[in-house]
């Protein structure tokens, strides 16, 4: 195995003014896009479930979802293992994780779907991280040139910065490879990634789970909860960003 360099001290490196401004702009843009993505998914599911109350074929689809979920429950832990393996492998190869989170919520329900999607997407990212540490990164390095400021942000990657970059509009595979090229410890990568994935995983698991509910009230409650989660997460990231800029 290739030896990884020793990690530098944990203190955050100050960013130059130009890089700090770019990071602030990219963070604000990413948070806005995340909010729009969740809002679009929420409105789409809400419209579908409202129409399902009046259109027989759609109502039958909702009933079928309940039947499918019962079949999955009868299959037991095998269904969980198959989903986790497929999700982890897909994320490792660069497939966006959010549709997988929604699918997990739809098939397994919110609680189980959230745990399965969070664990498997984190493990998939970790797989790409490990491959990057062993040299499998050439194809992705050229894509990373689109974000030169990102390398500066990740020069001394703490858990906080790993969490932070997971909120940005950068493909997960690119982030996994870039982090693999840094001296970040495995535990910090895993913790920062899991925490960084958590807000959107919660939101999309709620949305997916809401799509298969027999009660419109329950669906709307979950959709409103998804919007609340992403807005709270956006506010927290924005506060952290402002604090980092002030300290820098």
UniProtKB/TrEMBL annotation:
<feature type="transmembrane region" description="Helical">
    <location>
        <begin position="220"/>
        <end position="238"/>
    </location>
</feature>
<keyword id="KW-0472">Membrane</keyword>
<dbReference type="InterPro" id="IPR015414">
    <property type="entry name" value="TMEM64"/>
</dbReference>
<keyword id="KW-0812">Transmembrane</keyword>
<feature type="transmembrane region" description="Helical">
    <location>
        <begin position="75"/>
        <end position="93"/>
    </location>
</feature>
<keyword id="KW-1133">Transmembrane helix</keyword>
<comment type="similarity">
    <text>Belongs to the TVP38/TMEM64 family.</text>
</comment>
<dbReference type="Pfam" id="PF09335">
    <property type="entry name" value="VTT_dom"/>
</dbReference>
<feature type="transmembrane region" description="Helical">
    <location>
        <begin position="38"/>
        <end position="55"/>
    </location>
</feature>
<protein>
    <recommendedName>
        <fullName>TVP38/TMEM64 family membrane protein</fullName>
    </recommendedName>
</protein>
<feature type="transmembrane region" description="Helical">
    <location>
        <begin position="189"/>
        <end position="208"/>
    </location>
</feature>
<feature type="transmembrane region" description="Helical">
    <location>
        <begin position="100"/>
        <end position="119"/>
    </location>
</feature>
<keyword id="KW-1003">Cell membrane</keyword>
<feature type="domain" description="VTT">
    <location>
        <begin position="95"/>
        <end position="209"/>
    </location>
</feature>
<dbReference type="InterPro" id="IPR032816">
    <property type="entry name" value="VTT_dom"/>
</dbReference>
